[in-house]
Each structure stands twice: as C-alpha cells, then as structure tokens.
Specification:
It is built from 15 helices and no strands. The protein has 290 residues and is mainly α.
C-alpha cells in the first residue's frame, strides 16, 4: 500500500511538473518545449479539454496546423462546460486566423464571445478578423463600440475600417472621436494624421500636429504630419526638409518615406534648373512643382 501511494505521488508530481512547464513555455513562446511537455502531461493522464486546447496552441505556434486541428477535435471529446467550449473556440479562431482563414476565425471568436461576452480581447480580435476578411462595415461597428472618451484608439481603427469600406461620413465621425479621446502611442497619432489628410480634414491634421508638438514623444509625428501636408500641397522640397528632421528626431522607420520625398524634390529641382538637392532649411522652396 505504501509503495502504491509513493508511486501515485511520484506520478502526480511528474504530471504537475509537466503542466507547469507547458504553461510557462506557452507564456514565453517556447512552443516546441510546450508541445513536448503537454504530450507528457497527457500521457500521464491529464486528458482534459484545456490540455488539448493548450496543445493546439503549441502546435499552431510551430505551424503544425494539422496537429493543432486534431488536438482541438480531441479536446471537444472532453469538453464538459461552457468554459471548456470557450477555450476550444478561442484556440480554433487563433488557428484559423494564423492560417489566413479570417471568416472562420471571426465565426469561432463570435461563438466564443456568446459564451463569455466580457472577453474584451475577443472583441478586438473579432474586429481585426472582420477587417482582414473585408467585412469593413462590421469591423467599424465593433471598434466604434469599444471606443471611449478616454481611449481614442478603437475609434481610430473604426475610422480606418470605414475609410477602407468607402464610408467617408462614418470615417470622419470616428476620426473626430479618436482625436477627442486621444491615443497613447506615437504610431497611433501618426495614423490619425495620415487618416485626417486622406479624408480631406487638413485643419484637423494641423490641430493634431499642434497637439503633438507639446509632447516630446510626439514631436517627430508632428513633423511627419506637416511634411505630408507640404507634399500634398505640391511642395516636396519643404516636405523633404520636415521629413528629414522627423527621421533625425525619432521616426527611424520612416527613413524610406523621407528618401522617396527627397528624391522627388531633387528631381523637381533638377527639372527647374538647379544643380543640387533641396536645402536643409525649413523655408526651402521651388518655383514650380509637378
């Protein structure tokens, strides 16, 4: 009896260790290690829907799609509650999304949200899946519902979806809500500026640039917005100067855009009879532009 008890305790310890290792590996993105640990846990008797849902996540992380789908199918055999179904639907959506089947992903996440409507991340995922599938109207409505006076980022995404879905009035409305709510990252502010100009909202873009200039983290974004305005108004030389200053300050990822603008400015100057590139001063102008 003692031997049996010691054996059971040893087996339980091995099972708990395997489960803990798998969960930690999943959190760290170590999918191969997680998959091997989950296989051990399942062999030791951890045959639950969550075990197979985690195994599906690990397989998907390695691109083992057929194994991931088999794990989900096996998991449904052990599903006993709405929580189990939610875990499997959430993973099913993840697998479909990573495989590029956005409609299937949206369907799975929609079902998961029926079971757990307070899954906030799921609403974002559903919106992204709808947008990726080209269902811009549905995506716009989802993101707009997620916005708030304190967080304008969902409104910004809603504006982008409305713009892509050829709904300019909705896009302008969402854009103004986004600017009013504010964003917390420079890349989001950059997107708002570009969207404002794409929708013909020049005054709003300038107002956003003015606000960005009051915060050191966003000064480069303000310069980029002003550079876009100069470019759209037919002054590539000034646009190049402003873009160059933005790159120098912070916008390293925009170097390619700056080079393209400067190349166009140089070409215009060549055609205009000047022998050199645009001046680095803020007031650089050219007499004629295309």
């Amino acid at each position: 009896m003692t031997g049996w008890s010691d054996g059971a305790s040893w087996r339980l310890w091995r099972l708990q260790s395997a489960v803990a290792e798998a969960q930690g590996a999943l959190e760290l993105g170590l999918y191969n290690r997680a998959r091997r640990a989950l296989a051990r846990a399942i062999a030791l008797g951890w045959r639950t829907s969550l075990a197979y849902a985690d195994l599906a996540r690990a397989c998907a992380g390695e691109g083992r799609w057929s194994e991931a789908m088999r794990a989900v199918e096996e998991g449904w055999r052990y599903a006993r509650s709405s929580g189990d179904a939610f875990d499997l639907l959430r993973v099913s959506g993840l697998i479909a999304f990573r495989r590029g089947d956005f409609l299937r992903a949206a369907h799975a996440w929609q079902q998961a949200l029926v079971l757990q409507p307070d899954w906030l991340e799921g609403w974002y995922r559903l919106g992204v899946a709808c947008a990726a599938a080209g269902a811009y109207r549905e995506a716009e409505a989802l993101f707009r519902a997620l916005g708030s006076p304190e967080d304008g980022r969902p409104y910004a995404w809603a504006a982008a979806c409305a713009y892509l879905g050829r709904m300019p009035l909705a896009a302008r409305r969402d854009l103004h809500l986004a600017v009013r709510g504010g964003v917390s990252r420079p890349q989001d502010a950059r997107g708002l500026g570009a969207m404002a100009l794409a929708l013909g909202q020049r005054s709003l873009a300038l107002a956003l640039a003015d606000v960005c200039e009051t915060d050191a983290r966003y000064v480069a974004v303000a310069l980029e917005i002003r550079a876009l305005i100069e470019w759209m108004e037919g002054d590539p030389a000034s646009a190049a100067c402003l873009a160059k200053k933005a790159v120098t300050l912070a916008a390293k990822n925009e170097a390619a855009s700056y080079l393209a603008i400067e190349a166009e400015a140089y070409a215009n100057l060549e055609a205009d009879g000047h022998g050199g590139p645009a001046s680095s001063t803020m007031d650089a102008k050219i007499r004629e532009t295309n």
